Amino acid sequence: MLATLVIGLREGLEAALIVGILAAFLKRNGSSLRPMWLGVAAALLLSVTIGVGLELVSMSLPQRAQEGMETVVGAVALVFVTGMVVWMSTHARGLKKDLEAHAGAALKDGTTWAVAGMAFLAIVKEGFETSVFLLATFQNSTSVGAAALGAVLGIGISVVIGIGLYQGGIRFNLGRFFQVTSVFLVLVAAGLVMGVLRTAHESGWLTIGQTKVADLSWLAPYGSVQAALITGVLGIRADPRAVEVLGWTLYLVPLLAYVLWPPKRRAQGAQVPRLQLSLAAGLAVVGLVLVVAVPAAAPARAGGPVDVVAGSDRVGTADVERGALVLTTADGSTRTALSHPVAAVRSGVDATRWTWTGQDAADLPATLTLTELVALAGGRLPVGVDPQAATGPYDAAWTVTTTGTAWTAHGSLLDATQTGKAVVTLSGGGLQMPRAMTVATLPGSAGPAQWQVDPATVAATADRLADAQSAAADRTLWNRWLPLVLLVAAAALAAAGLRHRRALRAAVPSTPTPVAAPAAALPVDA
């Protein structure tokens, strides 16, 4: 609630100041205020429509797409609030003078409708910024109702202050007000950075830097006043991740330093370009040190063969070798070619899914003895087989239909399962007529017709791979992305410093070279 109250108060007061300055200017010039109020009303209606439309679109999307839209809205809000804070920090003092100059030019070129257009564009800008920023703050808030109430109160207070300023009944230091609220908004926006990075991860767009760096649940228990302040207002989560803390720091520190830096020193003095160039050099050095010092991410490894079970019984192991699944049982091993690779996620791990169908029955025995038949039937005599009359051996005709799926990650088998059935048709050996029987386990080295990788083994392998992938992503964050951000910032600071230095040199008038006076005539001796 506090965050949205300050946002509503700050943005509303900016809009109220603009309207008040334009209204006072028109009143002094004897012009009608009606066109300006029409422009203000149209801008407010458009701003509310934009905010409601964004919320309705977000609600109509599936969960993952909602997270993506929240990320986009939050990023746009960050751009707006950053631009607003920087612009007001440098232009607040001359806001009235600039507006009156533009309004005077508009009146000279046309009518009060031109001033109405100025009011419309100014309020649309403030209203759109407010809608997007409030929407992003609502999504980051622990209580939408309280956040909405805070926004309404803030806007209401700003309207009252704006009327008081216009009528002259309220006077206070606007520069100090904007500086204090700018500091607060920077803190809120830094928390919004963490929220944007969190929703970007939940939408699947950001996978690096997801190691949890702290547990702040003790500091801000859920439902407590501390949680309302730390999470609801400042946007700091109870389980911050590495990339979130890094983004929070990279946003908060430079922008807060800019807001608190004395305005007169931002664009004056020879020390400014020197400071910019020094900071650029420092950032570049830190970025290069990270590239060299942080080793590249090592490839993740899942391990070797994994256990295979049929029902609750362990029947062997499985592994992948050169595009084939190798199933090893007590009787030997078989190779099955894998095909149709597709990117997938299995047990929370990025993997490749393979499939296979059918099984070659050429290696299965053409005859079965009575003992082998009883073993295939699970230790029981099959129905319709009389051991006294049909003593065997029996002719066996096999029909095997199986389908299987395997998931591999980083060249190792993560999970696999095979379903299907094998039917053997028996004839001869004293049987009056052919008999068909379904078997669960194939004889010889073919292994069972239905099996899967042990779930406990899958979970353990997935955990190892997830840890390895997380570590690799963290290495990428510190070895590649952070140095890139620092080097880009260094280049921007260096360009600004050089441009500032050239501007200072151009502003210094050149001193003319002194011309030597002619030497006095020396007296000549008579």
TrEMBL record:
Signal sequence bounds: none
Compartments it resides in: Membrane
Keyword presence, Transferase: no
Any single Pfam family the record assigns to this protein: FTR1
Entry's transmembrane regions: 6-26, 38-59, 71-89, 144-165, 177-197, 245-263, 275-298, 481-498
Similarity-based family: Belongs to the oxidase-dependent Fe transporter (OFeT) (TC 9.A.10.1) family.
Protein name (database record): Iron uptake transporter permease EfeU
Species the sequence originates in: Cellulomonas alba
